[in-house]
Amino acid sequence: MMNAIAFLGNSTMRPSKCILRAFSRLSPSRDAAFQPHPSRFINHNINNQDPYRITKLRNVVPFCTNKPSSVTTQVASEARNLSASKTCTKDTTLDQVIIPKNGFNVKPLTVERLEEDEKDEEVVNGDVRNIDKDGLESVRRKEIEEEAWRLLRQSVVTYCDSPVGTMAANDPTDATPLNYDQVFVRDFVPSALAFLMKGESEIVRNFLLYTLQLQSWEKTVDCYSPGQGLMPASFKVRISPLEEDKFEEVLDPDFGESAIGRVAPVDSGLWWIILLRAYGKITGDYSLQERVDVQTGIKMIANLCLADGFDMFPTLLVTDGSCMIDRRMGIHGHPLEIQALFYSALRSSREMITINDSSKNLVRTINNRLSAISFHIRENYWVDKCKINEIYRYKTEEYSTDATNKFNIYPDQVSPWLMDWIPESRRCGFLVGNLQPAHMDFRFFTLGNLWSVISSLGTPRQNQAILNLIEEKWDDLIGHMPLKICFPALESAEWHIITGSDPKNTPWSYHNGGSWPTLLWQFTLACMKMGRPELAEKAVALAEKRLQADRWPEYYDTRYGKFIGKKSRLYQTWTIAGFLTAKQLLQNPEMASSLFWEEDLELLETCVCVLSKSGRKSCSRAAAKSQILI
Ligand code: GLC
């Protein structure tokens, strides 16, 4: 059923039409990836054991030109001939297929699925007894969950009749969906976990394999191609007419070249790796991550992130808007969210990369980087009341290798909101949003802090203190709807200068202090890791009261998350999936525990050993242990 696939065409100038038809991704090496010979296709047809094996044809035009090279043209035409017989065509007379406004096929709920939902009922009822503290009837609770599942299934996007992802939002009344009808890599993660925990892994496997094929499709912005290994922010299944009433489906990725602001999706590849690990952990099917093409995909992402640059820090240097906050919000440099995802992705890669002669250097590099990142973040991003007091009294302009104020932070950056806000107790603290020379962004960014807990980027004490802070600052960070994307909002001149007067990111709206229910699943995972499920249950119960009535909004506005966001999409898939995933995690602590990471003493040991070379610390496991207790 699934087509073999090929990427064709001169991507350098043409607006990136990739035609997915006939493929195998055989070569792990960057340059060997292009073999301009049609035998690749023939070969594939003969060895047609796995429908997902893909050959990606790389554009060989050396610089920006309108003319396709003769090689490209030749391969393209060969491929077209060969693939014509395999084109995925739509038979519109099939009465089981519903075509919604955006043209995606949505499979109707099947009998098997209803049966599975019935099985779920017992679990739901069991759960209801536990958390029925807020007056919601158990029947209501079940109805809400059922609606969420129905909506999640309706958001499924198919490619050649196979499910490949979920669209970002699926509001039938929205006449201008912009790119919300696309499958976003980051948005799909909670959908994937919800499906995996329900025992439905096909969609996740398809997603992982198809996005892998999109990975290095060369898209350009002003004659410049982003680095090899970059994963798209999103993709769309376009339907183009063939002859008569036949259609062809085409997978079309967006690497930021169409995105508002042309932002680079740095987090996509990191999420892809994290999801690949989760797929293995939950299904027990490790054969997917062992495949040569999948191994190559992991390595390409890792290599892209680990490439040398001019940076002085082990953290990843990125532009503004390179993650969930995909607009200008003053998070260029070394934002915590990216660092925590980077750390999680490296920890995942380390578990998944098959060790052999060709991979051992990469694994060594990963281990060293992991140690360096955790040391850097634990030491330099952490603040609690005492640390803030220390910064407040910092000496500046210290020229020496052992300066206390290494980044030359001027004490005036400790703003009044922070001095008021930080709890007295040393049991509370958090990791700051960003750190650069003479710049410490003290805003609290929720996703980065949660993933630091989940991945053990923070020390055990720091991780506990982050949850203590969220509990202590419940009204500010959770309020009427979990959870604030960041705190506090940028206001007045800061809003003008830092957001560029962005009308969507006005104070306490959207990325600028809005409340995003999708963060609920990651909060739940962090709480479960730290043995505090009751905190997550409280937040889930709060969301449950409003989400369905409010039609599953993308985000909420105001200081305490009281109103549905000004420009918020409705029926936002990751809101729905985040809610379902949070509930499933609470019901399945064992599955939850397979998704987070405990402290890794070996990594700390590497770090302490590296420090000892510079004469600063002794090298031993005991020293490593003391390091983790900072
Ligand atoms: C917005 C969000 C981004 C999300 C996308 C699709 O652009 O900022 O994080 O992935 O919408 O939902």
UniProtKB/TrEMBL annotation:
GO terms for molecular function: endo-alpha-N-acetylgalactosaminidase activity; sucrose alpha-glucosidase activity. It catalyses: Hydrolysis of terminal non-reducing beta-D-fructofuranoside residues in beta-D-fructofuranosides. It comes from the Eukaryota. GO terms for biological process: sucrose catabolic process. Keywords: Carbohydrate metabolism, Glycosidase, Hydrolase. The keyword Transport does not apply. Its EC number is 3.2.1.26. It holds the Pfam family Glyco_hydro_100. The keyword Nuclease does not apply. GO terms for cellular component: mitochondrion. Belongs to the glycosyl hydrolase 100 family. Invertase that cleaves sucrose into glucose and fructose. This is Alkaline/neutral invertase. It comes from Raphanus sativus (Radish).
